[in-house]
Hints:
The protein is 51% helix and 17% strand. The chain has seven helices and eight strands. It is globular and about 60 Å long.
Amino acid sequence: xxxxxxxxxQVPSDLPILAHGCLYRVAxxxxxxxxxxxxxxxxxxxxxxxxxxxxxxxxxxxxxLRENMDSAxxxxxxxxxDIHDAExxxxxxxxxxxxxxxxxxxxxxxxxxEYIYAPSALTADGVIERIVGRVRDxxxxxxxxxxxxxxxxxxxSGAMALRxxxxxxxxxxxxxxxxQMAQRRSRSHAKNxxxxxxxxx
Length: 201
């Protein structure tokens, strides 16, 4: 069960901003302050994905991982983006790294879609625990993992735990919803264009 004390949100004063998207790095000692600041500005609903765990549990993503780690990560991110776009949920892919510092990247230019790289001393599981322990209402958080221990700890904290297959089913439904919305917009635009032509003649 997660037992993380709640701290007041603080913005570390020495966050260097790097060129690749919105990527910043902070020392492990500043990790709690960064997570608190991020969550203080977050949407009500939050989807956390135990990224490499889900990749390794999924055949087509695992195949991509053998070729290129970034490609597998981005393929998972593209799937999660359908949920983000369809339901307005804040999404974070939590990834392990060899760095001694936390890294956060916004691959689509939105602060509500993140790649969070855990410092090596904490691991992705640890970052997920800290985030779930800091949200105002854990019931608004969903965690995707193929790790039984992560899911059990998530449920014990009051958040929702999903298996990878449940996540993919959710994403497919959101993808279908986005496709239907795009088709409706296209038909509406075509109708408006036809109406304009009628007026011209």
